[in-house]
Amino acid sequence: MAGQRELAGKLAIVTGGARGQGEAEARLFASHGAAVIIADVLNPEGEALAKALSEEGHQARFIEHDVTNPDSWAKVVDLAKAWKGRIDILVNNAGIINRSTVTTTELEAWERLIRVNLTGAFLGIRAVTDLMAENGGGSIVNISSNSAFSGHYDPAYTASKWGLRGLTRSAAMEFAAKSIRVNAVCPGLVVTGLNASSPHLKPMIEMTPMKRSGSPEEIAELVLFLASARSGFITGEDFVIDGGFTAGAAYRRVAVETGIF
Ligand SMILES: NC(=O)c1ccc[n+]([C@@H]2O[C@H](COP(=O)([O-])OP(=O)(O)OC[C@H]3O[C@@H](n4cnc5c(N)ncnc54)[C@H](O)[C@@H]3O)[C@@H](O)[C@H]2O)c1
């Protein structure tokens, strides 16, 4: 039930959990009783968050982790095994952006972004599913984007986030019979370290029908729902959470400019 400790006894891994949306997810999961592994390249931010959560009486550990590296994933799984002997939840949240176009994206930058945003989630799913299945199943949430429903100006980012929707569905089919659910969350604009200095913030907010960005905490609530037993019959789906942007921001603008709204 909402409002209760929904994740008591569960172990959750949040990649990119040291700041931004991942931090909000780690905090929310911990407050719901989960043992949380914060897995991020950002140390000391991750260490500080795990320490703060532990001092608040929650269960949290930080591990320095690069999602692009299979050996690094093996260490995350080893930590989960040694700590609680189980993995119930994986949030593939780590992500980067390029801010460049088809013309201006260097091949190296393209490959790096795809490796972090898409291959990282693939490696994560492969790393955790055996242990999840041993304990009766689990929930994997891939953080995609509402740019996975249109053509965003950063092509590598767009391709990676569309790719995550496909990976989500493929993995959901493969692991459904093992009671491992796989879903995607597709946020719109959320102001974090990823984009805080971007010139796109103002026009994005103006275009968003609700006229604001989302908060990391609002995204975390949806991720919690998908991670918890409340969504027990949902798998292979993607959930847009973007203040109405994908629902029809372009038509809304036309309606406003022509006096219909
Ligand atoms: N902020 C937005 O507007 C927005 C919108 C849609 C989707 N998203 C997605 O949400 C997710 C979280 O982004 P955020 O907004 O919190 O940004 P953020 O930059 O604050 O957080 C991303 C985290 O990922 C970590 N990370 C980067 N590369 C890594 C790697 N190789 N291994 C492990 N960790 C790594 C970073 O250190 C950081 O802590 C990302 O996947 C992003 O693409 C963000």
Task: Considering the chains and any ligands shown, give keywords for the structure.
261 residues; alpha/beta; Rossmann fold; 8 helices; binds nicotinamide-adenine-dinucleotide
CATH architecture: 3-Layer(aba) Sandwich
Largest sheet geometry:
7 strands, parallel
- Helical content stands at 40-55%
Radius of gyration: 18 Å
Distinct compounds present? nicotinamide-adenine-dinucleotide
Q: Summed up, what is this model?
A:
The chain has 261 residues and is α/β, with parallel strands linked by helices. The protein is built from eight helices and seven strands; from the N terminus they run βαβαβαβαβαβααβα. It has helices at 20-31, 45-55, 70-83, 107-134, 155-175, 201-207, 216-227, 245-257, and strands at 11-15, 35-40, 59-64, 89-92, 138-143, 180-187, 238-241.
What this model shows, in words?
The chain contains eight helices and seven strands; from the N terminus they run βαβαβαβαβαβααβα. The chain is an alpha/beta fold and 261 residues long. The protein has a seven-stranded parallel beta sheet, sandwiched between helices. Helix 4 links the parallel strand 4 and strand 5. Helix 1 crosses helix 7, helix 3 packs parallel to helix 4 and helix 4 runs parallel beside helix 5. The longest helix has 28 residues. The N and C termini lie far apart (39 Å). Bound molecules: nicotinamide-adenine-dinucleotide (NAD).
